[in-house]
Amino acid sequence: MTIQSVLVVEQPTLGFEAEKKIKLVDIEADKLVSNGEFTVPEENAFGRSFRDYENENNARHRVVEELYRQQHIHQTFEFVKKMREEYGKLEKGEMSIWECCEVLNNIVDDSDPDLDEPQIMHLLQTAEAIRKDYPNEDWLHLTALIHDLGKILIHPNFGGLPQWAVVGDTYPVGCGFSETIVHHKQHFKENPDYKNPEYNTKFGVYSEGCGLNNVMMTWGHDDYMYLVAKENGTTLPSAGLFIIRYHSFYPLHKCDAYKYLMNEEDRENLKWLNIFNKYDLYSKSKVPIKVEEVKPYYESLIKKYFPAKLKW
Ligand SMILES: [Fe+2]
Ligand SMILES: [Fe+2]
């Protein structure tokens, strides 16, 4: 399918269900028992260990480093505010979830040292691996399928944003930058927020336990897809939206940084994110999926949790 055949850029329409209540997930993640053993492969698609950002022989090493240089310099509190306002209007286009999967299929994520495959394979591999181990959590299968759709921001029709404003690990802005952030040492000094006393303390503009919902994260595909899902009135549970929104927040889920900003609901949802993350990271191996075979199942989930057409 060509992009022109699926993207219809329209005038903004007001009144869609922006504030539709999000259903709370009523199952506790830590009480779930997986029905299968998910085996963590030792090598990624390039035959190296996962998330290896230091390996200079890695073909993508320099691209990744440059991406983080730009991200660390340019992602400021003001920048994020501006992007959330602009993209929150959802006036870039209208398409279904599956159409977006197909458009995204032509985009390769430069920030990812593990992945050199079309995005749709990554999405389906993640979703199918989770489906196998958690067959009854259909919302989690769909969450996996859509978690990276926000990468559409790279596409010219969606602003053609540079990679540093779309992909890569995310972290809060408006408070001090944690030392656990990848490539922390190099470039934050050039970020205007670094010297701003309003933003450079442990809590910055936030307070202890304020809840991640009140914290502004670096702008990228996570927050964008969260906005799209929420503003289009998805019925996905709170944990699904949490996964979409924070799946690249590695300082939190890998290093326990910024935990003091979380509230009780965040702590519950984080259990699900930890489950999801294992699959997001390690299903990036060359396990081929027959797209047409699994498509009807995912189409049925899309129908259950989303409107037929979404505003983007
Ligand atoms: Fe992602
Ligand atoms: Fe992903």
Automatic annotation (TrEMBL):
Transmembrane segments: none
Cofactors named for this entry: Fe cation
Binding site for substrate: R51, D109, D110, S111, K151, G168, D169, H247, S248
Compartments, record wording: Cytoplasm
InterPro entries: Inositol_oxygenase (IPR007828)
Coiled coil: none
Major localization listed first in the record, in broad terms: cytoplasm
GO molecular function, one term: iron ion binding
Pathways involved: Polyol metabolism; myo-inositol degradation into D-glucuronate; D-glucuronate from myo-inositol: step 1/1
Gene Ontology CC, one term: cytoplasm
Residues involved in Fe cation binding: H122, H147, D148, H221, H247, D280
Reaction catalysed by this enzyme: myo-inositol + O2 = D-glucuronate + H2O + H(+)
Record's keyword annotation contains Transmembrane helix: no
One Pfam assignment: MIOX
Textual note on the cofactor: Binds 2 iron ions per subunit.
Keyword Cytoplasm: yes
GO annotation, biological process: inositol catabolic process; L-ascorbic acid biosynthetic process
Keywords assigned by UniProt, alphabetized: Ascorbate biosynthesis, Cytoplasm, Iron, Metal-binding, Oxidoreductase
EC nos: 1.13.99.1
Record-stated family: Belongs to the myo-inositol oxygenase family.
Protein name: Inositol oxygenase
